[in-house]
Amino acid sequence: MPEFKTVRGMRDFLPNEAATMRYVENITQELAQLYGFQEIITPIMESYELLAAKSGEEVRQRMYAFEDLGGRRVSLRPEFTASVARLIATTLRNEPKPIRLYCVGSLYRYDEPQFGRFREFWQSNYELFGTSRPEADVEILMLTNDLFKKTGIHNYWFKIGHVGIIRAILNAENIEEENQNKIMQLLDKQQWNDALVLAKELNVSAQGITTLKKIFKIKGKDSSKVLKEIKNTVRNYEEALSAVENFKEILVLLKEGDAEFDLYIEAGFARGLEYYTGIICEVAVPDMDVALAGGGRYDRLIELFGGEPTPAVGIAHGIDRITLAMEKQQIQPKISAEKRVMIIFIGEELKGESFKIASKLRATGIPAELEVMGRTVTRALHDADRKGITHAIIIGPKELKRKEVTIRDMKKRKQRVIKVKNLLKEIQTIS
Q: Residue 57 in 3-state DSSP?
């Protein structure tokens, strides 16, 4: 018999791991409700043209793309934004603005598997459509900050930049968008010297090269100082100055809103996706070389898909990466300890009564499972203890004749006999 294994880059999540994933996912859903984002569900598979349109060369090369049986070129989704933008450009085009949408699920990229990077991964995604005002950017950042606070992860920080500044310089230098994207891809990989070499090959002026070189070196935590340095560097580029002003408005509003952020500003920061037009960000923690979240502003993507001009900003949170960070920081999910009951019957003739009691417990929302292995009471209790069962109900023929059962507290190792008619009330009230 062949030994079957998971496909490279895919994973099984065992019960404890799955519970932590669902815990983080539940937090993302709670935040969606708190911030007024409505959940949508989009297909795992979309047309290749849609997903490849502005995903960036790096992502395009790693898409799970293939031809289906109908001869259509399709791909598993590598990110959510293209699918959500498709909805805004079509089905939701007449909805009143702003539109706040949330989705969660699995994504697929043919990356080299390593810690924190797999070919199947999970994200929660928030998109806000209809406004270019800085309040929208700040809301996305604050929501993300709330997520990390709620998970208990510590020492995280936001790396933040504004691609509008660099694109404005390249626009002034008459660099076509396709070539701008090539430069951005190099910046995403932190290959600043290669980006400068390419800029020279594209005939960027000496002034432009000097400006870019200075921009790539500007970084720090003091927002006022960094912004002042950026503004001074791009003083000859009017469009870039406008982007700096937008960047300043966002950072000032964060401060005025008493948002507790650990920010690191990097003027030469870029992300792999091509559709960004304004502020961009990633969230990082020590000892992990992958971002736990990332996003930014994209004001022209909806038009690309045939929709009306619609400014937008969004962010994605890596659910499985967040669980890895929690594990690395030894953070236990705050999962409420619920009652779990196992029903053990002594004698084949008591099966029916066991099912009856289990059904009554489940009807009131109490998880109940039957001992279905035919074990002795001692072995059944040992199994229940290993599985984290909180209470065992033992049904014996003598007790049942008196309309009684034995209830055992697995943690306290104590048991007592109670009337069957009082069982539901007893289970509901015990802590």
A: helix
Structure tokens at 246: 């937008």
Contact at 8 Å (CB) between 239 and 168? yes
99-108 and 38-39 beta bridge pairing: parallel
Domain count of the fold of the chain: 2
The pTM of this model reads: 0.89
Do 356 and 317 share a structural domain?
Answer: no
Cα→Cα distances 131→67, 274, 328, Å: 37, 20, 38
Q: Based on the domain organization, do 293 and 354 belong to the same domain?
A: no
Q: Are 154 and 226 in contact (CB under 8 A)?
A: no
CATH number at residue 104: 3.30.930.10
Name the residue among 305, 420, 320 with its Cα closest to residue 361.
420
Sign of the Cα torsion 223, 224, 227, 229 reads: negative
Q: Is 162 helix (H, G, I), strand (E, B) or coil?
A: strand
With contact defined as beta carbons under 8 Å apart, do 165 and 247 qualify? yes
Give residue-wise pLDDT tens across range 171-216: 999 999 999 999 999 999 899 999 999 999 999 999 999 999 999 9
Contact 140, 295 (CB under 8 A): yes
In a domain, 157, yes or no: yes
The CA distances from residue 31 to 11, 35, 143, 149, 296, in Å, are 27, 6, 7, 12, 18
pLDDT along the chain (431 residues), means of 10: 87 93 97 97 96 85 95 96 95 96 97 89 98 97 96 96 95 93 91 94 95 95 95 95 96 88 92 90 94 96 92 97 95 81 91 91 90 91 90 91 91 90 84 63
- The predicted-structure confidence for 158-171, as pLDDT tens digits, reads as follows 999 999 999 999 99
Please give the residue range of the domain that contains residue 345: 341-429
Q: Is there a single domain that holds both residue 411 and residue 281?
A: no
Q: Is 226 helix (H, G, I), strand (E, B) or coil?
A: helix
Q: Show the beta-strand stretches assigned E in 260-413.
A: 263-266, 279-284, 293-297, 312-318, 341-345, 368-370, 391-395, 404-409
228 and 346 belong to one structural domain:
no
| 9 part of a folded domain | no
Question: Do the domain assignments include residue 4?
Answer: no
